[in-house]
Amino acid sequence: MDGVQQIKQLITQKDFATSLDLHQAFHHIRVSTEFQPYLGFRFEKIDYMYQGMPFKVAITPRIFTKTLKPAIMEVKKRWKSRKLAYADDILLLNLDQQMLRQETMEIKNFLSSLGWLITEDKSQMEPNQEFEFPGWLWRTKEMTFQLTVDRRRCMLKELRLMMNKVKNREKILVRKLASLIGKIRFIEAQWKRGPLHIKQ
């Protein structure tokens, strides 16, 4: 799922946007008791097991998306604002600021009635023409997007660390390299020439 491409197709100039963040969304999904022992750990001689779906398990996003789909389909039927669900975030777009404000509250209440918790401080309830989603800063007046300052700072730090390891001929874990390549692929929406350097 490429969030940037989906937003590009969905967005129109001068759109207003709001977003809803589902609180610890993956944990809402209960893990079958027969699988819980495989999602456990031991700390100070005490065993702990996840009862809700944990993060960092490969199938978690797929199962979560399937679980949320009926609610999103109902939201699409009932309200006019354009919508995009991306992992545990829901983006709402509309040229009409007042309609978007009202629909955002109604959708929030609808999701809450289904048992989903909304993280107020991570959600953008007030319609704005500048918004962050997912890890990008979007400006609908100018129809531009760029990496958020925090994400850009983290990316530069990781690249510098990797360059130093290469210069010093230090061992690099395959997992770390794969993670960095994944992050470079994420930003290729803004810097088209980034992938050329990966192939060298």
From TrEMBL:
Gene3D superfamilies xrefs: 3.30.70.270, HIV Type 1 Reverse Transcriptase, subunit A, domain 1
Coiled coil segments of this chain: none
PROSITE patterns listed in its UniProt record: RT_POL
Protein name per Swiss-Prot or TrEMBL: Putative Gag-Pol polyprotein
Residues annotated as domain Reverse transcriptase: 1-138
